[in-house]
Input
Amino acid sequence: MAAGGGRFLSFEGIDGAGKSTQLRLLAGALAAEGRAVVTTREPGGSPGAEEIRRLLVEGEGGRWSAETEVLLFTAARRDHLERTILPALARGAVVLTDRFADSTRVYQGAARPDLAAEVERLHAAFIGREPDLTFLIDMDPAVALARGLARGGAEQRFEGRGAGFQAALRAGFRTLAAAHPRRIRLIDGARPAAAVAAEVLAITREALA
Ligand code: TYD
Output
């Protein structure tokens, strides 16, 4: 049980796995049951963190070093936690976030495995909070990448890195889920969205009961 009675849930997965759709469907289902729901995302989720998001997702691929990137993601997360997540939990809301610290562990960890210990140290020092429950929407990267690239837009910096990198990300998420089986639930995303949503809602209801 989180401080103030709220619950903190995150959705994770590779680019295009459908986690944003699942977050939206769960938010709708919980709101229909009369629960206070706050939906948010990373990088971003608060005005300051959304400014940092633009620094991260726009511009050319080599704009930041891996070290600077980890610091920017962590700075954005700190602002998101302070300004959006903790106040909502204190009000008793269910907070659903599209990505949280597991994304830094997996994405920055895949790019630079040697930084994994620094990532955990920064997390412990400045964030110090895990979601109560995490849904890993798992999917074959070939399918997910095709969906992601099809969406287009300015935020190409992280999505243009190819199927090999996405396969490493999928493996990273699955390893993390295996290491934290109570918190992280592995969900097969390669099914109709309604079937995935039904499983996510059932697990959530159990967690909130
Ligand atoms: P996001 O908006 O979730 O993209 P998408 O909806 O396409 O999955 O995140 C933007 C990109 O930032 C995405 O490729 C994942 C990456 N990312 C990291 O590398 N580290 C992080 O800590 C976070 C939160 C995101």
Q: What stands out?
A: The chain has a mean pLDDT of 92. Residues 3-208 form a domain with the Rossmann fold fold (CATH 3.40.50.300). The chain has one domain: 3-208.
